[in-house]
Structures are given as C-alpha cells and as structure tokens.
Amino acid sequence: MKKSLIALAVLGASGFAMAQSSVTLYGVADAGVGKIEAGSPAGNDASDKTEFISGSLMNNGNSRIGVRGVEDLGGGLKAGFNFESGLDLDNGNNLGSGGGFWGRAANLWLGGNWGTFKMGRTLNPSFYGTTAWELTGAANYSVVGNTYNFAGSGPRNNSQFSYKTPDFGGLSAEIGYILKPDNGDRAKWDMNVIYANGPIGAGLAVNKVKDGKTNYGLGGKYNFGNFVVAASYSQASVGDLRRRGFSLGGTATFGAFALTLDLTRDTKNELTGDKYTNGLVEAKYALSKRTFVYGAFLRFDDTNNYGIGVRHNF
User: Where is the signal peptide (predicted)?
Assistant: First the structure.
C-alpha cells in the first residue's frame, strides 16, 4: 500500500512537472513555379528559366521544420529553446541558412517580466525592426529586404547575445552583441526600437561591425482597415560601399484577397554605381488561416523575376 502511494506521488509530481513545460513541432511548406533572373542576398542563384521553385528568391518563404519549447521555472521566470532547419521541397535536401542542419535557428533563452535574454543563432534585431512595418511579412521577394538587406545586416546573426525589453504599451527595444572571436575578430552590435499599437507599426533598426559603416533602417506603416500604407528610409553597406534609399508602398485587402505594391528608390548606390527604382507586385488569396496561394513579380536592379506558389503553415 505504501509503495503504491509512493508510485502515485511520483507520477503526480512528474505530471505536474510536464504540465509546466511544452514542446511544439512547427513548420512551413512552400513551393511553386517561377523564373529568376537575379541572385538574392540569401545566395540563391539566377537560372533565367521557368521551373519548380523552393527556397528561391520568388517563393513567399523558405520551407522549414522546427521545434521550440518553454518551461515555467516559477516566479515568473521561463526558459526556452528554438531549433529550426530549412527544407528544399525540390529534392528533400536540407536548405541551411548558414550551412548547418539547424541553420535557421539554434538558440536558448531565459525570460520574465524583466524581458528576455537569448543566446545563439537567431533572427536579429534589425530583422525585427524591419518587419515591424514591411508589407509582405518579410517574404523572400520583399523588395525592401532584397534592396537594403534588412538594414544591411541580413536576417540572422551567429553567436549572438541579445536582450529584449518587455512591451510598454506597444513600445519595445532589443539589442544584440557578437564578441570579436565569434565574428572574424570584429565585434558587432545590432539593435531595434519598435512601436506596434493599434493601426500604427514603426521600427528603427541600427547595426554596425567594428571598423565598418553604420547600417540603419527607419520605417512605419498605418492600417486604415482594408488598406495599409508604409514608407521607410534605409542604408546598407558592404565594406566601405553604401546603398541608401527610401521605400513607399501599400496593401489593399478585399476579404480573402490581398494586393500589395511596394517600391524602392536609391538615393545613393556605391555597390553597383547605378541608382535603381525597384518594385514588387504581390497577390495573395487565403484558402484558410494557415494556407494561401500567391503570385509575385519583382523588378530588381534591371532584372525581372516572378513566382506563383502555395504556402502552408503548420
């Protein structure tokens, strides 16, 4: 009888512990057909042929599978992790953003009412500072993302330590830092300030590598209900060469259908020597809350690119 009571007590305690933690499997499947004349910042090569596309410039997003978990440590403190791997639906191979199997995310965090501290490979503050106002949800074919590369930083950092503040009525900030030995002997800092409350979304992204130029992006959007307008000004650099300009665009929503037009214009472009006006037209139709079809045309630095596909989130 005593052994039975002890066993029940152990099982009860175990069940309580399990109830305080959770692990979630999630992912994205995105594939279609398209033609790509331009390479992309992510390293996708141009083919100039209409073909099956997965993980390309003209997909809405990269297919991926990930696992994330969180444990309630008590007293308002939580611990969590996120591992995420890319998938190429063309052949089933790993599509690593950075070369590793968990190339999209590999990080650990602690959080509470004081904010969140994170360590590892993760989407960086400049990325979040851009997506606070960008119209496509940071699609692969985002004209702002491709022209100014998320304030010149790209979407992810390796070996990053970061702290994000709590939300103060829609206002938050995050700062990330990479130590010198983890970034080719050149320390890097990356930060954002975001305001998201009601119809307004705005974000400032700033980052700098030691001895490099300061990259930045400042943008905002306003939601009128069925119509959203957005504008921004950004500077991205590669070494001592800078690309600088503004964006202006809008999204109109008609039930399950949404149409986006977004334009960028260079005011300075030392990377190519020519100033470009780039543009994106995107159409999406929601089949459900997690699945939509899309078509997009991207005019990028004198190249024409298009894609038609289906995206399913799970």
Answer: 1-19
